[in-house]
Amino acid sequence: MGAQTSAQFVVKQLTDSGVVITGGSSGIGLAERFVQAGVPRLVIIGRNVDRGTAARDRVQAAAPSARVEFVSAECNDPVVAADAIERAAIAVEGIDVLVNATAATFVPELLYDIPVADIPLILAQQALAPLLMTRLALPMMRARRGGVIINIASDAAKVPTPGESMIGAAMAAIVTFTRTVAMEAKRDGIRVNALTPSLVEGTATAERILREGFSAKLFRKAGSLAHLGVSTPADQAELILFLASPQTARLTGQAISLNGGISAA
What we know:
This protein has eight helices and nine strands. The protein is an alpha/beta fold. Strands 5-4-3-6-7-8-9 form a seven-stranded parallel beta sheet, with helices on both faces. A two-stranded antiparallel ribbon has the order 1-2. Strand 1 and strand 2 (about 10) form a beta hairpin.
């Protein structure tokens, strides 16, 4: 069964959905997991052409029958982001699921060590892309009477942690934005949730923050608190698939932390 109706809204099975992932050329291997779950049409949006092309080829190889495309775009630019979402919507024949997984390269630092000039960059590079892409996709989903948006933030949005004043501010912006849009979009059958991981092993972000300095000390300590085990890319991908599926047709406005027990916020 491709789609079912909940009241006047359309709730699609993953096997009948068009999926768009921003920041999907690296990180948690989410695109591969979507096509393995039977998603027939998927677009990866990312900045780096070489990495994005390689990711598309890898995902296509994992599911030869799926249609997989890559769109190169800087999602922090409103004009470029608008063009990218239009191209993606055409490629997937309408966006049913949007996952915003873009990431910046800043690492935790105590506030007095952060150059003042970096503060606007941290806020914009961490928070702006999910806000823009959500806004651009929303009218398309409203017209289709349904859809799913999942924004990736972090536990820094919930837990005040030394070294994460600016990153936490940006992540809190994503989470509050997500919850507020969820309350607006529910009237159109659109579900909007956030994922707020902490340390996720085996990712480029984990490698960067664990390399040296203050952030390495911070996240080594965080990892020691994950008594259920440090989260993996596969853990995060499975939760995202669950949030995108009809099994969560009545779940919206939530910020979920899958972190092995590092925090309970």
